[in-house]
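Researcher: I'd like a structural prediction for the single chain below. Treat it as a standalone chain; there are no partners to consider.
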Amino acid sequence: MHVKISELGTLVNRITGYDKVEEARAAIRKSDESLQQSRSKLKSARVEFESISEQRIRQQQEINSLLHRKPQWAALELNAFSELAR
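Model: Treating it as a single chain, here is the predicted structure.
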């Protein structure tokens, strides 16, 4: 009965349970990659959220400024307010 060395290694790994350790390592690697991708997506979402929030703050400030000067509005300011209100 000739058993190849690679088959012997596989057999020893199976008997000792080391093959389960290798499976667990592969699962951990896969989970780690998924976690890194999720963190990257979260970072991108935060950047986008901050940008949108800053834009919204600027628009709100401009609307407040226009409303403060409402009695003196010219046609240009009326158009600007109409665009911002949309």
